Amino acid sequence: MPVRSFEASPPLLVVMGVSGSGKSTVGAELAARLRLPFADADDFHPAANIAKMSAGVPLADADRRPWLRLLGDWLAGRAVTGAVLSCSALKRRYRDRLRAAAPSVTFLHLAGPPEVIARRVAGRLDHFMPSSLVRSQYAALEPLRADEAGVTLDLGLPVEELVGQCLAALDGHPVRMGA
């Protein structure tokens, strides 16, 4: 997958993947290493979306539209300075919405097997997403396509290694491709 060159401007990145993939952890560490602002897309969800997911009900596209608009606006507002956003961005059309608002965005997809994610999500006590929704996340997931700027990485790797691979990809160095 193509990865943009960031020589002319700071990177605008979305760390994507299903719930429990490590997006927030990797995104926050990556932003710290790059000295860029970081945001977690979960913080942009309205209360109704959180209540729905907490009840084990997957969000519909209509639930996501205003949320994606807010995320696109946040990215667009940082296109010149760079930023890192953790966001599921599961479907191509969701990524297209983010790209429409911020054309220079690059996606870093943390990918791996459903069994690993199910264990991670079941072990979380401080998150609204129940493990019952893992299956729906994988059903919705559309991996990055060859024409999308980004890279896919193995979510099973330690955080420091994932961040290192992200940084290497941003410098145009070879990256071990994930699942």
Describe it.
Its EC number is 2.7.1.12. This is Gluconokinase. With 179 residues, the chain is an alpha/beta fold. Helices cover 41% and strands 13% of the residues. The relative contact order is 0.24.
What's the gist of this structure?
The chain has about 180 residues and is of the alpha/beta class.
Give me the secondary-structure topology.
Elements: E1 12-16, H1 23-34, E2 38-40, H2 47-54, H3 61-76, E3 83-86, H4 92-101, E4 106-111, H5 114-122, H6 134-140, E5 150-154, H7 159-170
Organism: Pseudonocardia eucalypti
Pfam families: SKI
Protein name: Gluconokinase
Tally of DSSP helical segments: 7
How many strands in all?
5
Structural class: alpha/beta
**Basic shape:** globular
Mean pLDDT: 83
Keywords summarizing the entry:
179 residues, alpha/beta, 7 helices, 41% helix, disordered C terminus
